[in-house]
Design brief:
Helix content: 40-55%
Radius of gyration: 14 Å
Largest sheet: none
């Protein structure tokens, strides 16, 4: 799942303050965790990992998270632009 910079910022902020999921402000991390069949600290790790930490969640975990917060999962491969020069 690729997130733009604003979404990553939202995930990171969500992971470290307030215990709220970025995708739906009405859902706490505990509520998201319950929908995913896991515990809130796992959701915190997942949301924090999307901001660039070393943890790499599986596609299956990202799918569960997306469904829990009312989103769909998209996976895109985007060709890099050739460097100028």
């Amino acid at each position: 799942m690729l997130l733009d910079a604003n979404a990553r910022r939202g995930v990171y902020q969500s992971g470290i303050s307030g215990g709220r999921s970025f995708a739906d402000d009405r859902l706490s991390q505990a509520a998201v965790a319950k929908k995913m069949g896991t515990k809130a600290p796992a959701v915190t790790r997942l949301e924090t990992s999307l901001s660039g930490s070393t943890h790499s969640p599986t596609i299956a975990t990202l799918k569960k998270y997306a469904e829990a917060v009312g989103c769909t999962q998209e996976i895109r491969l985007v060709r890099r632009r050739a460097a100028d020069g």
